Amino acid sequence: MKRLLPFAVGISICTLLVSAAVSAESLPPGQVDFGKFSPPGAGGEFVEVNLTSSLISLAAKFVEKEEPDVARLLGGLQLVRVTVIGLNDDNRDDLEKRTQKIRKELDSKGWERIVTAQKEDQDVGVYLKTRGKDTIQGVVVTVMEGKKQAVFVNVVGDIKPEQLSMLGEKLHIDPLKKAARATEKPEEEK
Amino acid sequence: MDSFTPINSGPGLRKGHLVILTLLLGLGLAVVGVTGYFRLGSDSAALRSSLMKSTPAQWQKKIAVHVGGFTMGVVRTTLRWVKLPPEPRAAIEALRTAEVGVYTLQTAPSSVDQERIVAAADKTMRARGWDRVLGVIKEGNLVLAYIPRRGLSVGSMKCCLAVLHDGILVVGSAKGDLQPLMAIAKNRLDFCVSTPPLAL
Predict the structure, then answer these.
(1) Going by C-beta distance under 8 Å and a sequence separation of 6 or more, which residues neighbour residue A58?
(2) Per the domain annotation, does A49 fall within a domain?
(3) Which has the closest alpha carbon to A160: A134, A130, A188?
């Protein structure tokens, strides 16, 4: 019995490790786990929108006759997650560090950084996860807006590069709109 | 000895029993039906309980109203003979069931830990197959919205909502068929939003 105990403990640990690895890998390639965000104290602002594929496909049905292009775009999406956190003295440092950590992780995991803009008190990063040349599997936008707010956006799905601008426009993600226009320009010049 | 001795019961007695049973059943159903108008469904009740249990404060119920499928069916049928503008008619046609409960906090709203409330509500609703699609905390106010993980379609849309504002908690849910609203939307709605909700 005593001999079996270390064996059982070993198996349990292995099972836990494997299940943790499987759950981490089971995320779609374009999905990023930003971790858990806590609402800021003292009446700060916190907005979290989490649109899953079932709700997105409902929205696609709403517009499929009027705006078939938008419906096609929405039909390819699996998840839209937006988190807006109001900044205060308590959480600013933590969120700045977290943003840097997320950006480093994205860089190391093969995400393509298409925008890094630091202007006055704004710090914007836009990243794409691509499959081949003609499919975007995920978009991540991180924004640190001075003393005001931190924004984290993750759009997961099957997106064509030419749909990026429309995605930014329809979801009102200005950095993505600008980035898409910037990436379209060289093609137009040719 | 015959163990199966027939009970001597006349047809009048049987009829009487049947009438009494029917009356009791009818009364029971009526009580359940009437009280059902003032009880929240299981999902809303679970959300309300999780919100209340996650705060040490005391809550007082103000009102709870539940309008079920039968009542909404009667309303829809009755309103077919009433002249109504298309928008309210579409809204009534779309709604299948709706319920709302209003509760007031008996202590100061500052005693409410909103992060804890959100975590507790998420845990409860996730276990019941609901995902949070919206969470807003601003100036001490809280809004949470959930939709079922599966079984969502244009013909069967469900959502559960909780709003905490100035010590007043409102919990509700609605189930509906979006097709009448979609028809109206296709005719009338301008999809261009003038004020973007997330202008980054």
Answers:
(1) B152, B153, B154, B157, B178
(2) yes
(3) A134
Q: Which of A47-51, A162-166, B99-103, B124-128 has the lowest mean pLDDT?
A: A162-166
Cβ–Cβ contact A48 with B under 8 A: yes
Closest residue in B to A58 (Cα–Cα): B154
Cβ partners under 8 Å of residue B26, min gap 6: none
Residue to mutate among A36, A38, A48, A143, with most B CBs inside 10 A, is A48
Q: Nearest CA to B58 among B103, B102, B101, B100? A: B103
Contact B97, B172 (CB under 8 A): no
- Residue B114 has its nearest CB partner, among A39, A55, A63, at A39
Topology of the domain covering B42-184:
TBP-like (3.30.2030)
B138 closest CB neighbour out of A45, A65, A151? A45
What are the sequence ranges of the domains in chain B?
42-184
Q: Where are the alpha helices (DSSP H) in B83-162?
A: 86-94, 114-127
Nearest alpha-carbon partner for B146 in B168, B170, B162: B162
- For residue A187, what pLDDT band results from cuts at 50, 70 and 90? very low
Confidence of residue A128 (pLDDT cuts 50, 70, 90): very high
Is A67 within 8 Å of chain B by CB? yes
Q: What pLDDT is attached to residue B108?
A: 77
How far apart (Å, rounded) are the C-alpha atoms in residues A28 and A77?
A: 11
- Which residues in chain A are contacts of B199 at CB distance < 8 A? 172, 174
User: B189 pLDDT band (50/70/90 cuts)?
Assistant: low
Structural domains counted in chain A: 1
Domain that holds residue A84: 31-189
Give the rounded distance of the alpha carbon of B74 from its chain centre. 18
Q: What is the pTM of this model?
A: 0.78
Asked if the structure places residue A17 within a domain, the reply is no
The complex scores an ipTM of: 0.76
Residue-averaged pLDDT of chain B: 84
Confidence at A88, pLDDT banded by 50, 70, 90: confident
